[in-house]
Every structure is written in C-alpha cells, then in structure tokens.
C-alpha cells in the first residue's frame, strides 16, 4: 500500500467516523475484560448440548432446539425473537455396517456421508480398489473401478487455520460422484479428520449431475489405516457392506433471530451468529453450539451496557451442515435490510488467534481500533483484507455485505468435527471465555461506530 | 531388613549362583542394546492385529489367531510349538442401543459388559437412579432401586501404575450383581477408563450366586457425563434399552506354547508371555498383541544368541479377558513341570519404568544384576519384594512359582483398554523397542543363572 492511499484512507475514515458516536477505548477494554469472566456462553453451550443433544438439520430435535433457543433468547432480554422457517431435504442415516470378508475377516467402523444411498437390503459385497488421493481416483481408468468398492485414503494434517480441510475435504465432497460415474458400487473414504479414534467423521456430499447415488461412507481413521495395511498385503480384498440410509422428502427447518435494537435504524445491522443444527452423531458442542453461545453472550453484554448505535442481530442458523440452507433463507428473506457488517463463529471453541477482515478499503482504518482492542487477548491481525467470511453468511457476503472473522485455533477442531466425539467435555471454559471477550470487543466497537464498512465490491468469489 | 539377614542372603546367593554359569554383564548389555533396534515385536503386533484383528475368547477369530501364532512361532525357529485347547463359556455381544426418552430425548453410546443378559426383544424402558460410587450403590435401599435402571458413575483417574483400576473397576466387576440383587432391571456404569471419547470400555463381570443376570452395560465417558448432567436437572429420567447379548454354550479356546530348549532340563523353565485373545471391539493391539510380541521378540533374541541354560517358554494364553481360562488351563496341564520363574507382559506397549519381584528372600541378591542391567533403560527397581505378578500366571504364582514384572507406564493404558480404540496406531514403535530390550535383559540373565528364585512361600494372597 502506498503512502498516498494510506493518507486517503485516513481522511476517509475521519470523515465517516465521527468520534463522538464512537465508544471510548476504555469502555471497550472494560467490557472486554469483564467478558473474560463470562459464564453465559458455557451456560448456553451446556444447555443446548444437554437438553437437546444432537440436532440434525430438518429433524424433530432441530425443531426442539429452535424452541429452546427462542425461550433462552427471550429470557435473556433480546427483542424481536422469532423463528423463520424453510424447507430442507431430509436424509435419514439409518444403519451402516461393513466387514472385510477376505482375506482377513473383521468388521470396520464407519459412518454414512450425507445423502449416501443405501445398499440392497441384504447388503452388497465387492472387491476393494484403493487410491491414495482424489487425484489418483480422478486419473483412474473406469474399467478398473467398475463393480468395485472404491477406497480413497488421504490423511488430513492438523493446522491452526484448518486450511487442509479445503483440499482434503474434496475427497468427501466430490469423491462419491467421481467414483459413481466410474462405475463403483460404493465408496469408502478415510475420515476427513485429524484424530486417531474409532469415531468416523460424517459430512455432506452432493451428487453431481449424472452421478447415480451409491453408498458413500467414511471409515474411522484407525480403520482406514487397517484397510491400507490389508490392501498392502497384495491379496484381493473383499468387503461386505450394509447401509440403510435414505432420502425421504422434505422437512421444516428454520433460523432463530434475535435483536438488540440500535438507536439509529438507518445505521444498519451488525449480524453475528453461528448455526443451531449439528450432525446427528455428536451433540454439536464445538459445531456449533459454542458459536451461537459465544456470539449470543457477547451481544447480551453489549445490550446490558446500554443501547448501541446499530442494531445487533444474533442469528442461530438452521440446516448449515447439509448445504447452508439457513444462510440462504436468511439472505433471501432479509435482502432489503441494510447489513452494516456480518460475522460468524463456526470453528469450535478454542482461542481466537487472529482477526480478519473483508471490508471496503476505505474502512480499513476503522478496523484498527478493533485490532488494538483485541491484541491484549493474544489476537493478531490478518494483514490481508478479504479473508473473512462464514458459511452461513456466504450469501450476504456475495451481496456485498462486509465481513470480519475472529479466527479460532483449529488445531484440534478436525479431531472432533462431524463425529460422535463432538461433545461438551471437549470445550475448555477458559478458551470459551476468551472467545466471548473477543466478540464483545468486536461488537462494542462496530455497533457503536457509524463508519460504513461496505459495500464490498467486487464480492468475494 | 537387618544386617544379619542381608549377610545370610549374600551367602546364600553366592552358594546358589556359581558365577561360571552366569552370563557376562557385557554380553547382557550388548543383547539389551541390540534389542533397542528390534523390529520383530512390531512385526508380530502389526501382523496379529492386521491379519486377525479382534479375537474374542472362544471365537472363530481366536482359533485363527492360534493358527497364526503357531505358524509365526515355528517360522521364528521355536521348538515344541503347539496348541493346548480347553473349553470356555461363549458369550455373544449382539447389539446394544439406548436412548434417553425423557426429559431430553437423545441416544447414548454404550457397550455390553461380558456376560450381560439381553433385554426383552422389544427392549425395556425404565426410570434411572444414579449413584456416584460403588459404596453408594451398596448402601442404597433396594426399595429405591426395584424396577429401575441403575447408573453408577465414578470417573477413573490415570496413573502410571494403573492402581485406580482395582478399586474403580469393582463397579464393573461387582456392580451388576449388586444392582440385580436389589431389583434393578438393568445397570449402566460409567466406562472404567480415563479417556474422553465415545468409545465405551467393555470388560468381564460375573454374576454372583443368587444374582439374576440383567442387562449390564458401560456408557462411554462423554455419555456418562451427559447422563450425570441430565439427572442433575432433577426431573425423572427414562431410558429405553435394547440388548441382544446372550450366553450360548461352550466353545474351544487354547494356549499356544513355544520353547527355546535349555542346556539343563533340570534347571527349570523361565516362562514369559502375554495373552492372545482380545476383546471384540478393538484389534487388541495394546491388550495384548504387544505383550505376546514383546516377550516373543525377546525370547527369539536369546535363542539366537546361543542355547541358554534354562528352557525359555513363551506362552500366548487364550481366553484371558473372560476369566483367566488360559492361565488356569496352563497351570493345570503343567503342574508337574519345574518353573524357575514366570513373567507376563499385559499392560500395553508403553515404556517399562519399573522392575518388580516376587521371589524368595534368598534370591534377592540374584535380582541385583537384573536391576543393574535394566537401569540404563530408565527402569527403576521396586524395593518391595512381593509385588510382581500377572493375570495369566496367577495360578502358577499361587503354586509357589517365583515371578518378576517389568511394569509398563500405564498412564494412557486405560484410555484404550477394552475399547474399539485399542488399535495399532496407539503403539509407539520406540517404546515397544524399549520393552523388548528390557525383556531381553531379563531373559539373558535369568535363563543363564542357576539361582533358585523360588519356591515362594507363603504364596501371594
Ligand atoms: Zn459448523
Ligand atoms: Zn490384557
């Protein structure tokens, strides 16, 4: 960035940010530090995971979770608390079992992937062909795959920013369709996860045009290790598989919305939230009870500190896991409202380590006080503008809404992600509090600063 | 110990240990250090867990494991390799599922305990009564339990020596009978384990006289946490349970025996080994493929170094998990043979940290060279004679056979013990090698030292 641009930015920031309307740094610091003693985020996370537990998109449990959320948000004093429903496709997991029948008979631990087809009622049995990457599967001659069970094994490494999930996750997202089009009768993938436990990682995959749905499942990592070893023996390997998963029409899902009305209706909404639904295997503690809990606890703190300039809206999105249905429904329903800023918490409950932005360049100086107020929490700033976002806020972002992210440490996130092991005991209350402090800081400043952070054009790809 | 006794011990040791027959310390050190590069123990552990996998006592897989063992032990050059069969009761796990039906509907992850009864085919549903310890269950008025599902939750803490397993494990071993006698329709215990994963810990329990078999299961630790939280809400908690476990007659099991014949048939046998069977949920890597692998690898090293004075016998015991049937059968069949010493490896594959003895007092000086040769491996000596033993060698020990133990670090053993997570990936090859080095050291000395280590009287309680 040149000095000239920097000067222009500073001038623009000065113009659009009358200091009088902003919150004093000392007040932000006081709110931030008080939030380090927060108990509300734990209370919400504990309550939702205990009193509802697993809450698959479109399930009766997700509906109970919406009612639970409404009651909780009203009790906390939020305004305009309501549910906005929408329809989602309903996929039923059913049962899944698999065993190596030759050369070394033994059972395998696995879980069906979202939208997996069933086997015939009596199961199917076929020889296994293994691939060590998505690229190897894509390069394979269909003649070698036809009639076989495809196995794709590629271990994902842990990373603070979770970046391997993008490329490695393609095996789950796209592998089933590729295998099906090449004539596979089923596909088993190594779990997209970094753990070493017999807890397979589920997750959604969508059939591309022309791909006939086949059984698509993830082996737990130790089982993928085992199948690799068995294949390395060089003898033909046969697996018998029985899966009863099925698509079964549509069901109701919904978003739960709660507001802290601002003093100036024209100043736009600061939208924060996470997603209410979880996969069915765990209780969705880190994915994403903690996200709705952290953002709600922070909003509650700002509400209690006096009416903010801007309306703060907390959204507990429904049906994120099966295809971002809640985010899309919200963006459609609220396209005409002015969103000053949006931010989502959906990467667990470990410490926030970085602050990222996706705002218009002229608004960058207004990010500086946020970065400064976050620094005492051990949070660094991502110098590259444009790297913020969230799955449920994707459609908002595409429409030009500016975004920020409080990036959580994801080193152990993919140990637990989409597994039965996503349970309350994995959450460290101290790290959860640091999250609340970071979000409280973010809201204290952005809900009280009239700076226009957007629109952001061109929108992110 | 008085100076007088010490002097007597020294004299006795000098008498019974002609130095000429013993192995030179330099040779022991060379064998020990070479074993730190061992690959055989890994090869056996990898082979048994991959090519057989789970091998429940009495199962067809355990029979395959015996054949696998015979082939492996013969290929390694052991003599007198054979199987000695015996009958065991056959318990079939079947399926088990449970869900909280009120007040917060959600499913629970659990596993039936050995010898658990089934529910009626349609399942059973009952209110839950919780206890936080075995003592609380024992103290409870049967009127409060009758017709209910008992839940006993008591978290086990990790410990290097695994000592909490004795007292906490009583909940599993004795809890079901106590609950049944008080009129419970089923019992759920918190897994006897130190982990935080959705992998329940199975294990055997035996019905005491007059206790009617009922469904008896272990909840995974996160599920026990959850049920505790649900109960703490203070509303009546109902669980629906379906279990198809059953006793189904007897099956064949067996021990696999292999010798390294010694130069002096009258010098007695040094018996080492572990158990071949595993629970059905995991592949029995740490319990106890590693035990048979470590002891076999060490025996092979001594065999290859030249004929020892004493016969070294390696035993891969069958049906340990369901009630020490293999150890009892061995002791019966070999009661007339002279066992100079016995030692078992059955506490995982982590580093040996301590050397323990249970020999006659006069033989203690002969333990000193062993302790000295083990010290460079980071192994300390348990100063209290009488604290060695092993589950499969229990009957031998009761008959007066002296014992030593190479105590492994059990800090993470009960994270994995009796779970689906007991798989090869949990074994650290370097720690496994340290085990082989320790056992090689032990065998190098004891198989070449004519000192009489026993009989030990009175036998251990
Ligand atoms: Zn999520
Ligand atoms: Zn064992």
TrEMBL record, chains A, B:
Homodimer. The monomeric form is inactive while the homodimer is active. One of its GO terms (biological process) is proteolysis. It comes from the Bacteria. GO terms for cellular component: extracellular region; lysosome. It is found in: Endoplasmic reticulum; Golgi apparatus; Lysosome; Secreted. Keywords: Carboxypeptidase, Endoplasmic reticulum, Glycoprotein, Golgi apparatus, Hydrolase, Lysosome, Metal-binding, Metalloprotease, Protease, Secreted, Signal, Zinc, Zymogen. It comes from Sphingomonas montanisoli. Residues 255-439 form the Peptidase M28 domain. GO terms for molecular function: carboxypeptidase activity; metal ion binding; metallodipeptidase activity. Transmembrane segments: none annotated. Residues 1-21 form the signal peptide. Pfam families: Peptidase_M28 (PF04389). InterPro entries: CPQ, Peptidase_M28. This is Carboxypeptidase Q.
